[in-house]
Amino acid sequence: MSEKTVTVKVLRFDPAKDKEPYYQSYRVPFTGGMSAMTALDYIYQNLDGSLSYYDHAACSLGICARCTGKINGKPGLFCQTPLDGDVTLEPPGKSKVLKDLVFTR
Amino acid sequence: MSKQTIETDVLVVGGGGAGFRAAIGAAETGARVTLISKGPLARCGATPMAGADFTLDGRSLAQLGFKGDPNDTREKVFSDIVHQGFFLNNQKLVSHYVENAPFRLKELLEWGVKVLFSEERAIFTSGIAIMDALLQKARSVGVVCLEDMMVLDLLTVEGVVSGALALDIRKGDFVHFQTGAALIATGGWHKAFWPNTGMRDLSGDGIAIAQRAGAETGNMEFITFCCNILYSPPIWRGSLATYVAGLLCGGELTNSKGEAFLAAYDPYIAKVGSETEWNKSFVSLATVKEVKAGRGSPGGGVYYGRGDVPWEQFERTAMLVFPNWKYKAMDLSGLGRIMKDGGKVEVGPAVEYFDGGIVVNERLETTVQGLYAAGECTLGPFGANRVFSAITEMLVHGATAGQNAGLYATKRKIPSLDARVFEPFEENALLPISLKEGLSPAGVRRRVQEEAHDKLGPIRNRPELETFIRFLQEVKSEELPRLHAQASGRVYNKGWIDALELRNMLQLLETAARSALFRTESRGVHFREDFPFTDNDAWLHETISTWGGDAPEIRKKPATLTDLRPAEGVVPYMQMLKRMMEAHSDTGGHH
Fold it and tell me: Chain-centre distance of CA B7, in angstroms?
């Protein structure tokens, strides 16, 4: 494949089987104007259906703020943070992780 | 697995504007009210995404102290809504809308909603401001609000709604409700289409569960597509920014050949059809015509630019709605740069509003005892085409539905349901997490969404609708039972939720596709290439649908025409469209 890809490293934690959180990396096709949420959608829909992020009632347009997390260590909304290269996605600091990127407020 | 049982007088399903207004109305009758929100409180459903306009007659608006047109009347508004709806409107519901709108605006102001600006017969505020005010009011009257919860089915005892099964999405546990009445306010089912403008929770759960509980639905083929939605880049996909810019600032739409294709239409239709909120139906239709003729953009849309509107003027108007090219957390400065440089962006129609839905009367009762409905999920006042505000609809509906549900439920003893009656519903819901392997719900969903956008879009025809129905039947029988949630456990299991939603969306898509095939004419937002005329002899009728267990049954029922009736005869669609536009009263503005 000659198309450009980026590596997206995601914090994973499944309370049903994991003692500690860990990181998992995925290679995602890069398109101009994609957001961190676009990458998560791609991973969930094409690479790994076990990934959880707050999606079932997210607005994806910067209104509801439920996709809050850390993007390369900086707090922000996954849906409104543009990607320009490899990236690490984590739940917000100090939050209690419910599953993967979904956290308890 | 832990199971919770909750007793309540009125169970409101849906956490948008209609649901919250209904919950307030029910609580004010003395009923104990529980509201279930699928997503974050006051931040899910379509309402927070809205601009938002609230429409009412200009005279009432002026009496409330705003710049309304004092010569406007309720009769003019009534007539305009009926003409915009191509006479398919339930005129009793139009009266209900017109009569109640001023009260709903007055209370919004009392509850602290700020008006940004007003015009002849509308005020503009934000959906978020409305939601914040409603949430605060609901809490003050004792409504219990639960979030991140999805209602899976309604339970009836001898045909009367008595309970509901819900899923706590975070924990993955079932919740049993025993209720005196249920009220559906779940909005539209945007998620059944791709692209769409709705939030990701809008999968039509409420309409689907009402259908399964025996409620009639109607006019499900009438689906409004909003034109000029941003198709790319992905970070803006689904945003209405270009729609709003086109309406307020002007601009130009071109096809892949660079032609301003709206110029090919009757100048009057093109003008009214792009400068007022008629644009949703007219421009969406014209856009899909270009795409179907091979003159679309790579993403299946067309191009929007500012045309000959001077940049200074364009930006000044845009700043009213997008200060500093920001809209909430969305940074639109890149869009501003493109517009300044005279560039173009890819835009197109995306599903935005559902004119049909659960059948209700003017008391907002459904055809099932103990079941009420409000807002976009109903077959509301707009007939075949909506131009007036859905924000007004959700509030006038919500207030009446909530009050009537509260009065009904408080006269009734809350039914006691044996846990065993929930079991068949739970077994069905557990299927996607009990299979060891199977199909990805998200993968199946995307195919369904794209087919829906293509075959059930603004332009339909018999062969495509029949192909689509066969496709839906195959997905329903071959794929739906094999949907498998890949994640282990029940805690926030996305695949599981997706599978449960897909069941509902397939049900509604099949109902809508069969209704669209059944209606052999063109009217409002339903355009049939093979029947390009409005048939006022045979089709002043609603299409009524009921869920027969495995497939919808569709029949005709005369529309409720109390005051206004169109001339008899069969009229070519574009001619009917122009007549409906020309019949508009002398009140100005965007509606």
Answer: 30
